[in-house]
Fold these 4 entries.
Entry 1:
Amino acid sequence: MHWLRIDRYYSSESTFEGDNERKENIAGLSSSLSTFNEMEKAGDNPQVAFQPVMCQHCNHAPCETVCPVAATSHGRQGQNNMAYNRCVGTRYCANNCPYKVRRFNWFLYSQNSEFDYHMNDDLGRMVLNPDVNVRSRGVMEKCSMCLQMTQATILKAKREGRAIQDGEFQTACSNACSNGAMVFGDVNDTEAKVAKLAADDRMYHLLEHVGTKPNVIYHVKVRNT
């Protein structure tokens, strides 16, 4: 079960000249459909762009409005939270998500002899993160934006009586990314790195025309060829 997928987009230096002429010369529906069966001509030197897609934590989340038991709701910090013990598995949220980032848990992975992932005995379960509960079968799962790490950072700064510093907020994916391609932080802090990235001209949202107002932003890839 993955909460983050990597989409790959291929491009080449070849152009699309001649496409309009072909479409205008096509007569009839059958011949029009035949053009979709043709394979795209691969470029001699194709380029690829990788786009990590997780839950976008939308401010106008379409998944929240269709849940009959309010298992998915919006948090105070902007995340789209998931109450796993409240979910009844209708999967309405997955059907209404335009990004298709929600996963239904079909199987019971813990204490199940069919899935021996070292979670069938007490010693093996000791490696599990105590801050994250093990979900049972029949519930929807998604990226929680590592809510437990965010809350731990807030409580640590509160206990020490100081403000949270820039770069202190981390998620599992941003913490593990060695190239710094994923940045997490407080976008309301104008001096934060993530706020400056959000104000950049390269910034865009995934499926921005849908109007979900996601909290995850992307940057246009720039190549110096």
Note: The first helix runs from residue 19 to 25.
Entry 2:
Amino acid sequence: MRRLLLIVIALIAIALFVMRGGAARDVDVVIPQGSSLTAAAAVLEKAGAIGSSRTFLTHAKLFGPHGAVKPGEYRIAKGMGAGAILKLLQSGRVIQRFVAVPEGMPSILVYERLAATPLLTGPVAVPREGSVLPDNYAYVRGEARGAVLGRMQKAMQTAIANAWKARTPASAVTTPEAAIVLASIVEKETGVASERRMVAAVYSNRLKRGMPLQADPTVIYPVTHGKPIGRHILRSELDSDSPYNTYRHVGLPPGPITNPGKASIVAVLDPAPSNALYFVAKGDGSSVFADTLQQHNANVAKWRAYRAATGK
């Protein structure tokens, strides 16, 4: 009978430990590196996630799952039982936050976004243009900005290495570095995702024929370093002798003009089968392509008249 009573008492204690929780609302807590269970319990009590650290520790040692707590930031849900809290801290399922780098974001804006993320720590330099792969990157509170940037740059290295293996004879680039430069131009010049390979074909055909690329975004890059210019290109900029001026200089500019996404990298390594050498915007984000200058001039006249008539 005494043994049965002890079992019942133990089961009740276990149930109380599993269910007991002091959080009246969701609470975020940070468990520092090297924290013991005792130190973690103190953090939990101070944050209001549990009612008593002493009670929590007693029940944890008697009835809780064995294992050390792991450092990091955790979200303790409203009404979460003490047993569930302990399991969470032992699991290492920390809160993950994200820094978003959209396709075509230049490095100066990547830098500004990292610098403006308040839960990251430490300084970071403006990354080399074209060295960051656009994506969503997870981070935890207190992580170094440099560490997050390192993952972004490692992702780009992996992406270009993998894409390079699938390069086709239609591609005009001969090195991974050149692929990123051309992909950055395609990224800036593509208004509709489905046209990436056609835009890549135009520039690939021009490179192969020794024609200037005549890409407006390259002319703008030395002026804004990738940020929106907010106005039309000036005649003085088109006449400048900048190595980024692809109206005056044949071939690729000396470096990327933004951080291209995977799709643009793949496009320049496998451009569409086309003889197109020209394209002009239609006014709805898409473009019309032409093989000859005569066709192109007709397209330009047509779509300029359309845009003038419709105000687009």
Note: The chain is about 45% helix and 10% strand.
Entry 3:
Amino acid sequence: MNFSQILLILRARQKIVLITLLITVLTTLAVSLVLPKSYMATSSLVLNYKGVDPLTGMSMPGQLLPGYMATQIDIISSKNVSLRVVDRLGLAQSPAVIEQFHQATEGKGTVRDWLADLLLKKLEVVPSKESSVVDISFKGADPQFVAAIANAFADEYQKISIQLKVDPMKKAAVYFDSQLKLLRDNVEVAQSKLSKYQQDNGIVSLDNRLDVESNRLNDLSAQLVAAQGQTMEASSRQRMASGSGYAESPDVASNPLIQNLKIGLGNAESKFAEVSQRLSNNHPQYQSAKAEVDKLRMDLRDQLSIASRSVGNNAQIFQQREGAIRSAMQEQKAKVLELNRTRDEMNVLSKDVENAQRAFDIASQRFSQTRIEGQSDQSDIAVLNPAAPPIEPAGPKVLLNTVLSLFLGTMLGLGLAILAEMLDRRVRSYSDLADVAQIPVLGVIEWNEQPRKRFGLFKSAPQRRLRLS
């Protein structure tokens, strides 16, 4: 079926199209005039999802999520909000409403739930495409009633949004309160362990004690090095003084008494040599000079032995002093190592106290902030335009319905015309005849009927003309 055939069908069935269009338009117009007038009130809200929390001053990342606006629309159109509106306006206490409820549901369910469902059916929540404004609209027969319902939905939505934000904060505050008690106990236990350890070890200020003991160890180490050098020098002098050439030892040779004895011995030997040249061995002067020389030699030998022994004694003294300093340094080193161990253990206890105190401080700060947020009644939702009782009805829209009925009636008439043609198929053109008979068309007789005369009794004969195809 081509386009020309469709036009021929519509031309032949034009009465069906016109009657269908007329019936549709008249029916729509009658229904629009009979239907009661309905009013719509709209309350506009602003969701401040790009702002900051007025209480904490922090940004609200949860409101920057893509599904935030859809979530808020679901909250507005939730049954919980609708039930709050019913309770706020006291709709469930009206005897007329209760009677309507029994007639509609035969007493099944509750009036609150029935009213909440009715309100949600007439509620319309429309978000703005490029802003954070949400329009809450409600339709009804009473202008005052629809405005009250729209404003009630806006107010209850604000309240429930605050409740949804505050309730988790209250629960979190209770949790933080219980945790603070445990953290406070942990701080007290750690502090008591540290205090007991200080008392048991007699520690007042560990750092100062460690500095003093370390300085003392350094001093003893320096003294030991000096003593070792003195001992080495004294040992060398002792070896030289105790050998066969002890007389050449600097310590022995520099002894004033020995030097005097050497001078006296030299003088006595000179005198004895002079006397021995003049006198015989038995002469009293010879005997006296010889005795003096022998006595000086004996005294010199004794003094050399005493000086040698004094050098050895001095070396032993230095060795004993070195040993004493080494022993004191070992004791001091052990004491410093013990202080280091004590400091390490005390540092562990101090870290435990610091960690426990830090955890307690953080939890305390979070508890304070959570408790303040749980007591806040601030909302990030503001009413931009409250709903006012509408003056003009929102429906039924007679002109719009009429225009739509014209379009719908036309489409319906076209469909009925095509359906009627399919049920009673007729030949409308030579192409239809060719399709039905499956034979070629040789010629077409064009039938042109003359128009009827206004006052004539008979029509003129039609004109016929043969056209070969």
Note: The longest helix spans residues 284-374.
Entry 4:
Amino acid sequence: MTEWPIDWRAVVDEAVRRRKREGLSQRSLADLAGVSAPTVNAFEQGDINLRFTGIVAILQALGLFIHSGDADALESFIYDGRRRWEELIAPLPNDHPSRQPLGFSEQAYALEGIKPAASPKQLRDILAELPVTSGWSPFWVPTRDAIRPMIEEGQVECWLGRPETDRNFNDAAHSDFWRVRRDGYAYLHRGFQEDGPDNLEPGTIFDITLPIWRTAEVLLHAANLAKALRGNGESTVHFRARYSGLEGRELISWAKPRVRLGADGRYRARSTQIDLDVLTDVEKIDTALDVVVEEVLTPLYERFNGFELPEDLVQVELAELRRQPGFGVRRF
């Protein structure tokens, strides 16, 4: 008999709690897990006669099941990053902007074919010297003591949403949490810019251009870090992302009104969450970034009533990203 018996009712109760916390209906969870709504209902009733693959799919969709082994090291790293973020925000009121209560994205990557940094301190120095990509680059390394990255559990970690700090922007869009490991694993938790103070109705819209910029910037960060860690064009980048809080949002051109969609309110998300995944390499990021970004984001836009991401839109936005003042310039 096992020394650690599974309390199945406790597992089910935790799954139900997480589903409700994420704002998911049973049908939405079924869509995410790739199972039927009756299967989710039976699971939540405590039915132990369901197919094991269905149970695993439900638990995975809720972040409650992690495969073991090297192939799933990135998934485990993301899980740990998510739990760490939840630990940090736990004392905050439910509506605190640093909780990113209306929606957020998670972006992570793992590098292979690199030489790990000698120490967390060296890694922090390397991160501080990587080229910037925009005015709000991912994995930003602030120097102010109150928010500068710290060494936690052997990783470089930064949380810009600390409630005790004096911030210029006290909103979900400027409350990034990130952590990076010496061997080239990185995790970023970001609130939606659409939920910032510039939008009178937070939680109602999803901008068409912002995911292109944000995805490209994280991929560029991965390529730059790989080079700094003695990688080359063949160094691989395993990229994963999750967008949560999508349900009910309308896809519009908000950040750049000049971009014409012709949507007329027809493109609205019906499910709250999606996971994205791509395996690429440094050379492809350097030479065909638009192709990689389009591959990553196509399933995201399809969640908005089947919207098809225009190929030329990705190319135009990435060209504009590269024209930003200071793009590619090292911080120090």
Note: The chain has a mean pLDDT of 89.
